[in-house]
Structure formats: C-alpha cells, structure tokens
Write a structure and sequence with these properties.
Blueprint lengths: L6 E4 L3 H12 L5 E4 L8 H4 L3 E2 L6 H14 L2 H5 L12 E5 L2 H16 L4 E4 L1 H7 L10 E5 L3 E2 L2 H14 L3 E3 L4 E7 L2 E6 L2 E5 L2 E3 L5 H6 L8 E10 L9 E4 L4 E5 L5 E5 L14 H14 L8 E11 L6 E5 L2 E8 L9 H12 L15 H4 L10
Parallel strand pairs: 1-2, 1-12, 2-8, 4-14, 12-19
Antiparallel strand pairs: 3-7, 4-6, 5-6, 9-10, 10-11, 13-16, 13-17, 14-15, 15-16, 18-19
Length: 381
C-alpha cells in the first residue's frame, strides 16, 4: 500500500471508483481507493441496478441524462473487455390517480424540454409495452426507451480496471480507522497502515456520516433499509422496468430471466439493518400480483436488503466542507448512487481540481440545508 497519495477516496462502490477514474484521466494518477470489504460490497452490489432519466426536477434529469449518455459507450470509454450488461429496454412508470396523471404530464413536458424522449401513455398504450400488466389498475403511464438496466458488478469493475491502468491503486479488505488533520495535510489511518494526503473524498455510502465524524463534520445523512427479491428464471416476458411511485414497486426481468423487484418502507427505522423478512415479502408479492398478475406463479429464490444513504430532501451531497479543507463529499444519494455514478465521478473530480462544473453541482452542497434551499423530487420510490 502506498504511504502517500494525491487523493484518498474512501468507499469502493461504483461512485468511489468512478471518481478515481475521472481524477486519473485528468492527470491525478496517485489516487488511492480504500474499501473495507470487496468492490461493490455495499449499496452498489445490493441495488436493483436500474437507470432512468424520467425524473421530476431539472437537476435529476440532467444528472441522469449525463450518466445514461456515458453508459451507452462506457465499455469503449473504459476499455473494458467484458460486458457491463447495459440493456436499454426502457422504463414504464405507471400512475394510479388523477393527481399522478397531472404530475406525469408536468414530468414529461420537463423531460422533453431537456432532450429526454419520454412520452405519456394511456392505460391501453401502457399495456402494449408490458402486455401482462393489469391496465385496469392504472390511470396513465410514462415511457422512455433509453432507460434501462446494467450489471453493477461489471460496471464497477470496468471503472476500477480503467482507474488502475491510469495509475490509481485500489485497496480492498482495509478499514479506515481515523483521519487526522494537520494544517493542509491529512493522515488516513487504516488497518494496513497510514496514508498521507492533502485530499480525502468521502464516498462511503450509508457509512459516510461515520467517516465525516472523523474530521469533525456532521452530515445530515442516515441509513434506510430497502429490500429486494429475485425469482426463478423464466422465458423472456418483460422488457422494460415496471415502476409505480405510489404503489412503491419496481420490477424488471434480467437478461438471465429472473425477475428482480424491490421497494422501500416509510416506517423503516434508521440504521444499518441488512436483514430481510416476511413483511417485505408479503407486501411485495401483494403489490406485484395486483399490477402484474401473471407473475403470481413465479417462485422466489432469495431476497436481500441494501442501504439507501438518505438526506432530508432525498438528493445527493457533493463538494467540500468549510470545517475541513481538502475534505470532499460524494454521498447521500438517496437511491440514485448507482445510476448517477458517471456524473458523480465527473463533478467530484472537477471540484477537487477546481475546474468548471459540467453539471449544476453547486445546488447540491451540504450547506443548502442550513440555507433552507432543499430540492424536492416528486418521482421517487
């Protein structure tokens, strides 16, 4: 392990390795990524792995569009020999009330104005997209064909391999124990030894508040459990991701034939619980059978949980902090971390290097909460 680095990134999910790659390709080759387990062992490897541009704020649409534009040529850009598994079969997002229909009209108008080719559908038009859906349960839907799904493990590895080729070092099975600040320098103490660096990037996902505490920074970020299940594989039945905000469900069929579906729970207590239980399974099955009745015959193979790193307004936090110079944040993604990874890598590298911003990242600094400038997104599960 190197004992000095230009930048130390804490967190080996897709956000951390994307930041490492973006720094390295801009000439900062002495970058070290620290991960306490293996790459993608946290929220990245536990996510549903869908990516969509159908959001209700200009900010989220911009970050998502930037990221999907990248994912479309990521294997070439990153020089990856494997397949990151990016399948653009679209997202079908259904509404179940008149209020949602009105919100969806606004969403589509915004998305179209930003160059996102989404469209508003009637229930019968939505059934043409997913024929096994019960269209009598919905009032409307939106669809964007460029939305899709990719493999989180291959996508993370593609970024990591590219960063390593450019000089970065990625160290797994290594825990950060403390961070000491002396002037402009920092000592990152780990279970393998110390690293001296002027810059630390906190990309530790749900554990970002624990890392921030090490430098005396209090983050308005908390961990929230979200559960997922996967079924037995079957013949191709559903191309697009199916999603409902009000019914609290996302459901997609993977290229291998299994269905993955997940949801959150508004009553879930904050914390690091990664267990999964019968309550989720019963509620998930009930919602799925109501909207997608043909899936009632499928057997569940396994289920698991992952952690959303939540903020008060359910938007990420980027940039530096006034309490600790050279300490940067890339956390609090509130369920967007995987799909925003290309944008995250770009904007954090630009912040560290004091370059012009490619995206409106200044709106997402940690100080917005104190200023009362939260940004509210209407289209979340």
């Amino acid at each position: 392990m190197r004992n000095t680095a230009d930048v130390v990134i804490i967190g080996g999910g897709i956000s951390g390795v994307s930041i490492a790659y973006n720094l390295a390709k801009r000439g900062v080759s002495n970058v070290v990524v620290l991960e306490r387990e293996h790459l993608a062992s946290g929220s990245t490897g536990r996510c549903g792995a869908g990516v969509r541009m159908q959001w209700g704020t200009e900010l989220d649409c911009a970050f998502a569009k930037y990221s999907i534009d990248f994912f479309e040529h990521a294997a070439c850009e990153l020089g990856y020999d494997g397949d990151i598994g990016f399948k653009q079969n679209g997202y079908l997002i259904v509404g179940v009330s008149d209020e949602e229909r009105e919100q969806f009209r606004k969403n589509v108008a915004l998305q179209n104005a930003l160059g996102i080719e989404s469209k508003l559908l009637t229930p019968l038009e939505a059934k043409d997209v997913i024929p096994h859906m019960d269209e009598s349960r919905i009032t409307c839907a939106t669809y964007c064909r460029r939305d899709g799904h990719l493999n989180p493990f291959h996508a993370t590895k593609a970024y990591a391999d590219a960063a390593i080729r450019l000089g970065a070092q990625i160290i797994t099975e290594t825990e950060v124990l403390s961070i000491e600040i002396r002037g402009g320098n920092k000592t990152v103490r780990t279970s393998l030894g110390d690293i001296e660096t002027p810059v630390v990037v906190n990309a530790a996902g749900a554990y970002a508040p624990l890392i921030a505490d090490m430098v005396g920074v209090s983050l308005p970020v908390y961990a929230e459990r979200h559960e997922v299940l996967v079924t037995e594989p079957v013949a191709p039945l559903q191309g697009p991701m199916f999603m409902s905000f009000s019914k609290n469900i996302y459901c997609q069929q993977t290229p291998e034939g299994s269905f993955i579906m997940g949801r959150g729970d508004k009553d879930e207590p904050c914390g690091y619980n990664l267990g999964s239980g019968w309550v989720f399974l019963e509620r998930m099955a009930g919602t799925c059978v109501e909207l997608l009745p043909l899936l009632a015959e499928l057997s569940v193979v396994r289920q698991w949980a992952g952690l959303y790193a939540m903020t008060p307004d359910r938007h990420p936090i980027y940039g530096g902090v006034k309490e600790a110079s050279g300490f940067y944040l890339a956390c609090g993604f509130s369920g967007r971390g995987f799909m925003f990874a290309p944008a995250t890598g770009t904007v954090v590298a630009e912040a560290v290097l004091n370059l012009p911003h490619s995206l409106p990242v200044r709106l997402l600094d940690v100080e917005r909460f104190a200023r009362g400038e939260e940004i509210w997104e209407p289209s979340v599960v």
